[in-house]
Amino acid sequence: MRASGPWVALTAYFALIFIGALGAAGAQPAASKSQDVLRGWYKLSLALVRHTATYSPPVASRTLAYLGIVAFEATASGDHELQSLAGQLNGLKAGPEREAGQTYDDALVLDAAMAMTVQDLYSNTGPTGQRAMTALADKLHAEVAAGLPADVAARSEAYGRAVAEHILAWSRDDGGAVVENMGFPLNYTQTEDPAHWKPTSLIAQQQAPLLPNWGKNRTFAMPDGATCSPPPPPEYSEDKNSEFYKEALEVYQTRLNLTPAQRDIGRFWADDAMLSVTPPGHWVSIALQILARDGAGLTKSVDVLARLGMALSDAFVGCWNAKYQYDLVRPVTYLNYIRSVIDPKFEPLLITPPFPEYPSGHSTQSAAAAVVMTDLFGENFAFRDATDQSDNLAPREFPSFWAAAQEAAISRMYGGIHFRAALERGLDQGRCIGGYVNALHTRR
After folding, report:
1. For 158-179, how does the pLDDT look when each residue is reduced to its tens digit (9 = 90+)?
2. Which domains does the chain have, with CATH numbers?
3. Is the pTM of this model over 0.90?
């Protein structure tokens, strides 16, 4: 169990705003101000992910992608090293341009764009979140606008909002803009065949699976949700000699013989909605830690966060497309159903998520993230991940992004919630999805 909930996380961040944890920006150069803006809005965004009820992992991935694109486009408009994503992403047309011969303040452009984006995409968060957004917007605006000529401040702020408006307008028809009933359909007909998903929770709302149409959403870099679809899972069978039965038995035996190290890995990568920053937020947190550790500049930072966000979002669309194509039963349901040999009282280490099993979302999104991060930082890039240290989960060290992705994948078997095929083929799916993001041209 985690030691703190979403309210604790957001309240702690909210307090930091008032004690000046982001630092006084008055004497800082413009580049430093821009970095404060970028980090500030991302940190609050991750706190809001775990605070806002509709923010399941797919929804979080979508928001983090749009936030990254807004930050990238706002920065690219004044950075000769960056190339706009307009015309490269599905349906994204050229946005507003800076007026030739006029002066803009880059930090204020970025702040205005990110403030509008966060406040729009988290508009359904609760009162504490609303206060946190207002407080950060007021604080950062006062700091970055201090000392600027009135016309430069007004022009910069108006342009930043125009960039955000352009991206947000594009987001409205991607299929994921409206999430009703926290993503659980009010009407859903289950397939009665035992091979297919059955509810794994007693919660009334979760008698239907999460976001069954998410796989139809518009993607960013890959053509559509079916582009990198994995092959079918092993055929459902109750025969003890079948591949499916053997995979189920592996999950059971793994759970029965979990080592302390495996238990720690399962919990480290659990990333439950409303108790964490979710799986996509975990990878964004990793990126933020690396960028801060290495003192990366704004150009590098917005490139990393935009590409990572798109990879994570496309991964969830692709994964959900496959999940509802195959609609496979979860291990806990199968293991409790096959009573002749396997324990009918089987309980996974982790709570089984309320949606079909195949492929593994952790595997798909982690592989997509690893492919993109390796392209950005290189092979065998070692890093330390302290994402959940405040929740009493000890930091972990990784020799490479792919090592982290593989650990995230196997953690789901340790957790008792995925068969091996879902892990391995999810990793393959993520590799494919990440390749489409790496093909984008973000540098001139």
Report:
1. 999 999 999 999 999 999 999 9
2. 6-171 (1.10.606.20), 185-438 (1.10.606.20)
3. yes
